[in-house]
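Hey, can you fold this one?
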Amino acid sequence: MKLGRCSISHEAIYRYMFSEEGKNQSLFKYLRSRKKIRHKQNSRKSKPIFNRISIHQRPQLINNRNDFGHWKADLMLFKKGSQCNLLPLRERQTRYVIAIKNYSKRSEEIASSLKYIFLTRGSGLPLKSITVDNGTEWVTHEKMAATLGVKVYFCDPYKSYQKGSIENANFFLREFFPREVVIDQLPDDYIDAKVDLLNRRPMQCLGYVTPEKLFYHLMKSKVLPKKTNHFLIDQM
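Sure. Predicted structure:
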């Protein structure tokens, strides 16, 4: 007689952990975040975003991670009342992460930060597309796309699994940057050092190569502009 298998969803496990019985056992201590309270997801206020390009229109070349230079982006918010935030981006093929500190949640500020990281500070960084959620920080996506010369794709509302790799990166970064931290007081070098820890972790999906090693291997194989600044030279 064959024994049947019982599967339990991750949502059921979380519900139990945050139930009265789970709280009495302090099960939250076994979570990476160690939070006693589970916050509701997708709590940011919605605002109409016109002329979005759906993730379903994204070419298979991007979906299959067969092309270098396609990124996913998300916004990490901090304690209530703080405008300063962190914008992590993850390159899809190599899983390499960069993070940008912004002093405002306004779409124009986010666009300016992206322009800085890809066209100024990291001149030569590969950028062919960005996939984002439906947060208000992407309201000016058309202007942003025109400035960067790329397409911006949007996930379906409330479908966080469509950007699982960047969600995973955020989860890791929350260990160092919890919501209570005053992010605007942290120096960029400190933030970069913590992001480096993520990029230097061997990943099974990459054949146990680190994202950093694979990213810069592919960077070296492409033709870089003549004027490459120290940001890239130091990393390579």
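The chain has two domains: 9-38, 53-235. Let me know if you want another pass with a different chain boundary.
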